[in-house]
């Protein structure tokens, strides 16, 4: 990570984070993790199945709390938050992109994107306007009236990305976003993320694919619940 990035304000800070699941003995999925991601960074978390990536995703997305240690997202430490406060933090400050798109078939693209603003207290006119702008950012404004069934896999994922960014989150969190796509389409989606990053978005992408991680400016490698390497990548 560059000196400038290291000095920037953190959107994510994890210190000595442990996550255990009940068992005899307990299963330790994360074993003392330290991680800092600054605003404006684009980071890949990479590792094989069982490395702790999914557990890390749950903590970074305010979907779960650590067993011990501290997790701060956009300056808020999550350990003692009530469920309602965690939900509010996710809705305000985190945009999610998933492998399976999670679009609603009965809604067109612009309506799917607008779902990200349902709890924002905005008028329908403003929700539509912001949704159009989000689709424009991912190059899909011309498909705004298409249902998911009329879109390709790559287009559906770009709609999902537009839905994630429409709230202007502090952090865009992508979980295996190319996992259901062919290689060429996956490269297009990674380029979409790169364009969003160039425009100022902070992005953390979780993947098992070393080739994808190698196309992202910073790579954090996990194994057996530990971060074993973090490095800047020349892209």
Structure description:
This protein is α/β, with parallel strands linked by helices and 235 residues long. The chain has one domain: P-loop containing nucleotide triphosphate hydrolases (Rossmann fold, 3-Layer(aba) Sandwich). Helices cover 33% and strands 27% of the residues. It has a 6-stranded mixed beta sheet with strand order 6-7-8-3-9-10, sandwiched between helices. β4 (68-73) and β5 form a beta hairpin. The longest helix has 16 residues, at 183-198. The protein is globular, with a radius of gyration of 18 Å. The model is unreliable at 1-6 (pLDDT under 50).
Number of domains: 1
CATH-derived topology: Rossmann fold
Order of adjacent strands in the largest pleated sheet: 6-7-8-3-9-10
> Segments where pLDDT lies below 50 for 5+ residues?
1-6
What's the CATH class, please?
Answer: Alpha Beta
Overall structural class, as computed from helix and strand content, comes to alpha/beta
Shape descriptor reads globular
Report how far the terminal alpha carbons are from each other.
13 Å
Strand content: 25-35%
The name of the CATH architecture is 3-Layer(aba) Sandwich
